[in-house]
Amino acid sequence: MTLLIHSMSEFSDIIISAMSLAKVSQIAEIGAEYGGMTSILADHAESNDGHLFSIDPGPKSEFLDWVATHESVTHIAKPSLSAFPELKNIDLWMVDGDHNWFTVYHELKAIEAACIRDKKPLFAILHDVCWPAGQRDMYYAPDAIPKEYRHDYCMDSGAKPGQSGLLREQGMRGMGHFGWALHEGGERNGVKCAVVDFINEAEATGHQLAYAEIPAVFGLGILFDATAPWAGALSDLLIPFHDNPLIAKLEQNRLANYLTVLDWQDGVLD
Fold first, then answer.
1. Which residues pair with 201 in a beta bridge?
2. Coil, strand, or helix at residue 172?
3. Edge-to-edge strand ranges of the sheet holding 179-181
4. Residues 24-77 pLDDT 10s
């Protein structure tokens, strides 16, 4: 089996530092990643007299067993957009669920509304803002996406960098577990597109936001209120990583190597 570095936990040092700067104690995690970022978030919440709310409609049984042993963790077994009424006074929103424009855009709108209601600065960390899902929708549950927002998709074709279309039996593919939009780019397509659309709409209403992007491990986006008391310190932490060309080059090399291994496995290369 070929393994690929894919977890938000690869950014754990940066995320932990960011949480400390923003004095985070109450955390909402969209998309449980038991054994990865979830345990790190739980440890931080517990050590800061806080709580972790982990939202996932269908986690593994091992995750549920783990939650049962941690009083500082609550599992909400609902799709993210249905879980927001149960979330109050959240300091940090970790967004790593369904990687498509409709879901992420509406998650961000719901996060903004919750922050306004609770008089909290907006602070969200999002995964998969770069290739492959940055500008191409991924669907774990296509039928859950309203038809008018769902692109034509395929469950068994693969994506490769620099190619808008999909490839049969090549590239990064879901093997029936998820589907890709048939084309890359354009309106309402992908996680980064959702982030950009949200920021543009928020700033048009006077909401001052800051955004940093670390172009590694599928891309980490950090979105926060530019007027928060900790915004300057957080910016100082993130500036060396933001849109760093060396990091981006290393990510391109990592993906090229991984996709070459997939081609060997698929018999595309001799």
1. none
2. strand
3. 138-139, 179-181, 153-154
4. 999 999 998 665 789 999 999 999 999 999 999 988 888 899 999 999 999 999
What backbone torsions phi and psi does residue 27 show, to the nearest 5 degrees?
-125, 135
In total, the chain counts a number of residues equal to: 270
**pTM strictly above 0.85:** yes
The CB density around residue 146, as the number of other CB atoms within 10 Å, is 8
Instruction: Write down all domains in the chain, each with its CATH number in brackets.
Output: 8-266 (3.40.50.150)
- Tokens found for residue 242: 């933001």
Average pLDDT, the chain: 94
Cα dihedral 34, 41, 4, 255 sign:
positive
pLDDT digits (tens, 9 = 90+) for 71-95: 999 999 999 999 999 999 999 999 9
Place of tokens 């049962």: 68
Are 237 and 21 spatial neighbours (Cβ–Cβ below 8 Å)?
yes
User: Residue 162 has which token pair?
Assistant: 């620099």
> What DSSP designation does 151 have?
P
Q: Which residue has the tokens 């940093």?
A: 212
Of 216, 173, 219, which is closest to residue 196 (Cα–Cα)?
219
Quote the CA–CA distance of 234 and 229 in Å, as a whole number: 10
How far CA 259 is from CA of 176, 201, 270, in Å, comes to: 18, 36, 14
